# Entry
Amino acid sequence: MAEALFKLMLNSEGDHWRVESAGTWAEAGLPASQKAQQVIAEMGGDLSQHRSRPVERSLLDEFDLILTMEQGQKEALRAEFPELAPKVFGLREILSQAGDIRDPHGSSLEDYQATAREIALILGTGLEKIRSLTGNQASPG
# Structure
């Protein structure tokens, strides 16, 4: 959901960034849950073609910034790839907050909606911080 929400926000801002997601402990090739697809569709996005994939070093090397939903994910990535640690952050850290983004997997549609709203709020409020962390002070073109 975070990937789709960030893409929606960047498109509305006129930004053109490469945004992709991967799971720290994900199984490859699984579609987004029906509830995630519904919530993102309600917000103007589309997850129908999304497929899960695990994090791999070659993928991480391609990005200027890596955001995780949970502190455990951040710690796992920093431990496995210590040289990438300076570009790995928990999403809440963008707003100088601690804690995890709750994974709604297996819960109610309302929980998915609440998580999506939380992610969208953090991304929207923290866009300038994200730009500064990636070195994109101005809107990239």
